Hints:
The complex is a heterodimer of chains A (about 290) and B (about 325).
Chain A: E1 4-15, E2 24-36, E3 41-45, H1 52-60, E4 67-72, E5 75-76, H2 82-88, E6 92-95, H3 109-119, H4 125-138, H5 155-167, E7 173-177, H6 185-202, E8 205-210, H7 213-219, E9 222-227, E10 230-236, H8 237-242, H9 247-255, E11 282-285, E12 288-290
Parallel strand pairs in A: 3-8, 3-9, 6-7, 7-8
Antiparallel strand pairs in A: 1-2, 1-4, 4-5, 9-10, 10-12, 11-12
Chain B: E1 2-15, E2 18-31, E3 35-39, H1 46-53, E4 61-70, E5 73-74, H2 80-86, E6 91-94, H3 108-118, H4 124-137, H5 143-146, H6 156-168, E7 174-178, H7 186-202, E8 206-211, H8 214-220, E9 223-228, E10 231-237, H9 238-243, H10 248-255, E11 304-307, E12 310-312
Parallel strand pairs in B: 3-8, 3-9, 6-7, 7-8
Antiparallel strand pairs in B: 1-2, 1-4, 4-5, 9-10, 10-12, 11-12
Amino acid sequence: MPLVEVSNLVKHFVRNAGLFRRGTRVTAVDDVSFTIEQGETFGLVGESGSGKTTTGRCLLRLIEPTSGDVRFRGQNVLALSPSELRAARRGMQIVFQDPYSSLNPRMRARHIVEEPLVIHRLGTRTERHDRVAELFGLVGLDPTHLDRYPHEFSGGQRQRIGLARALALTPSFVILDEPVSALDVSVQAQIVNLLMDLQERLSLTYLFIAHDLRLVEHICSRIAVMYLGRIVELGTSAALFAAPQHPYTRALLSSIPVADPDAPRHRITLDPTSFSRDAQLRRVAEGHWAAV
Amino acid sequence: MNLISVAHLTTVFDKPNGPVTAVDDVSFEIREGETLGLVGESGCGKSVTALALMGLIQPPGRIAGGSILFKSRDLLKLSEPEMRKVRGAEISLIFQEPMTALNPVFTIGDQIAETLAVHKRATRREAIGVAVELLDKVRIPDARTRVRDYPHQLSGGMRQRVLIAMALACRPSLVIADEPTTALDVTIQAQILDLLRDMKASFSLSLLLITHDLGVVAETADRVAVMYAGRIVEQGPVRTIFHQPQHPYTRGLLASMPGGAPGRRLRAIDGNVPTLGELPPGCAFHPRCPERFEPCTLEPPLDYPAGPDHTAKCYLHAPR
């Protein structure tokens, strides 16, 4: 059984609605289905507005989906009552993109990491205290910095705090929403390596949401490409990069700047008329689907 | 021939706790028709360098030394009215954020026309016609109608095209593009980079491209200067920098990029980018450098030759 099963997920937002105005309906996530196996890193890529972040948040019900089905260990997440949902969230956590805005500036690092334990009423004060110190060590932070405030940490260190907070409840599934894109280039690799180490040590399953395709290729076993709210292609990283099938995937891959002045460049410009928006995913090879 | 020669440029910000050097003894040249890529991470001084070239350093910032020779005049010695004639006309700047660099209450045509009118390149009446031509050149479809659009009616990529059109309006010889594609999606970034390359050829420009993205530099630049903590630590032709990097920082940056066998650990650079004003003594990179040895912690290294047209600020290349 897959750890996470998403079927026909849909999210509508209503834009410009007012007291006497209906507003217009925007479909941010349009009939999205995929599964994530235990222990894998599943990549969700796409450009801004493709619906990748909304999809991630719908899985945790940080945003309520309009319709569809999300199963975590076989349990229907969308059918849970608020108290059941709170219990289920112990198993599934999220790390946000921006380590500057996702940590409360008025809380000490220690309390930021401890907060999930307090909310879930886990352990005595001393036990929580020890657990926070342990988490600090786990993500490579200096335990002597426990009483510092977020602004006293660098971007990379703040992202480690966000990670420690996400891991406090020993989840099995972590959504990583652009976890390194706000960081300096020279620090990104440290966090990527930490994510890979933690996955091994704690047998974590990741949903990795990103726009950096090179990074996704490097750390994800399978990848889904989103375009305007839909998954247009899904397959193993190797298959997707070696033989992209959808015109959008091809355009996207050909746009990645390569850090080699002598690399051959064959830019493919996307022609939106070259494919149907309504095409369904179909199997193009073993473990590889495309909406063509 | 050199279009612009920057020598020993130093920019200081007077903070309450004392002066902080943001740009420290920076020297580089841009030749006619060349693209120089200025690469570095946040806070390394690359944007401050751009502002210094435009004469836009505002208090508490100030230029503490050096010279900027542009067409045989030192820009640092010009009066503000003289500098105003250079800024936007002979040297123009494309900002990072296409969302905030345009004025939301004027049409894009009016904003391009204003640039032309300020520099007396066209009368108000002619200016709209010129604006249409420019929008056409930066491949905005249906320029004749679009010229009456307000910024919010355009996508991010289209706004960046408008900013490029505006930068080109007075036919400058040097365009500074400060992270021109950072806010854009990768497919749009590719289009904008292609456009910049084409514009460079058709307007015979020189380009100073400021970015943190090594991929963008590899695709666009002829020569590269790598900045770290306010200093240029390595400088050379693009192929040399990417194929035979000589400074441990450049090597570390290139080695840390994703690649190689999937799932393998990346070769990260240890430590963090130092905060300006709290730089370590000697070479600012030494606490993170795998190859540091005794002199690195004592005195900042000078630019040492590392090959043809190639220098590295690293004691590994100091003559013994």
